[in-house]
């Protein structure tokens, strides 16, 4: 299957889901964007590396990088390989120089590792076709609204808690007509509100 190279083009606080962030991946040779909702800890792990901040003690993803480096293991690439009911599935592809191993990972963790290993991020074309949002022009969304008062002077002291998955809340756009959804999607894209655009996109996809 054809793979599409992606870059991180945006990371912003979610306006509809408390404690969540919208990670926006952009097509390197195109104008499609792939919005993915991630947790605050993963968003911070990505932002810290992009902003070249150095915590006093290593975060989990930093520890993984050091551990892998100690044994000569390199992260070759990250691949977003599936999308099921709004959930993206990814894997990290690693090598010790002799063999290549594919390891299943949450997309947010995979991206956090990719920025540390400076590894490329890819998604299959069918994922971009079904979940990608086309942006006119070449505007980028930037790192913004990362809650600096929220947590800590030292990001290494954050306690990460894995939460049990809960039922997704009802999509607030489910009551709109198809025509209204298209209008709302265009408006969200004009305002560069990618997180809202992702919700509208999901509702449109459900009706096809």
Mean pLDDT: 80
Bulk shape = globular
Strand tally is: 8
Low-confidence stretches: 138-168
Helical amount? 25-40%
Beta content comes to: 25-35%
Please give the largest β-sheet.
8 strands, mixed
H/I helix tally: 6
Radius of gyration: 17 Å
Strand order of the largest sheet: 6-5-4-7-1-2-3-8
**Cα end-to-end separation:** 23 Å
SSE run: EEEHHEEEHEHEHH
Supply the helix-strand structural class.
Answer: alpha+beta
Q: How does this model look, in words?
A:
This protein has 208 residues and is α+β, with helices and mostly antiparallel strands. It is 32% helix and 29% strand. The chain has 6 helices and 8 strands. An 8-stranded mixed beta sheet has the order 6-5-4-7-1-2-3-8. A hairpin with a 4-residue loop joins strand 2 and strand 3 (32-39). Helix 5 runs antiparallel to helix 6 (194-207). The longest helix has 14 residues, at 194-207. It is globular and about 55 Å long. Mean pLDDT is 80; it is low at 138-168.
Short summary of the structure?
This protein has 6 helices and 8 strands; from the N terminus they run βββααβββαβαβαα.
């Amino acid at each position: 299957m054809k793979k599409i190279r992606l870059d991180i083009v945006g990371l912003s606080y979610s306006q509809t889901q408390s404690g969540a962030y919208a990670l926006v991946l952009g097509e390197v040779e195109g104008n499609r964007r792939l919005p993915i909702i991630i947790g605050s800890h993963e968003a911070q792990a990505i932002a810290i590396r992009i902003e070249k901040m150095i915590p006093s003690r290593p975060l989990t993803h930093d520890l993984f990088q050091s551990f892998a480096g100690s044994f000569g293991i390199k992260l070759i690439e990250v691949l977003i390989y599936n999308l099921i009911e709004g959930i993206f599935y990814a894997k990290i592809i690693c090598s010790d120089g002799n063999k290549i191993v594919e390891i299943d990972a949450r997309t947010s963790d995979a991206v956090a590792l990719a920025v540390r290993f400076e590894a490329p991020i890819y998604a299959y074309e069918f994922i971009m076709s079904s979940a990608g949002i086309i942006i006119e022009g070449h505007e980028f969304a930037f790192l913004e609204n990362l809650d600096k008062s929220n947590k800590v002077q030292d990001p290494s002291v954050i306690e990460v808690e894995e939460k049990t998955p809960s039922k997704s809340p009802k999509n607030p756009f489910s009551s709109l007509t198809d025509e209204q959804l298209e209008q709302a999607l265009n408006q969200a894209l004009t305002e560069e509100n990618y997180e809202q655009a992702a919700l509208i996109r999901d509702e449109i996809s459900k009706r096809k």
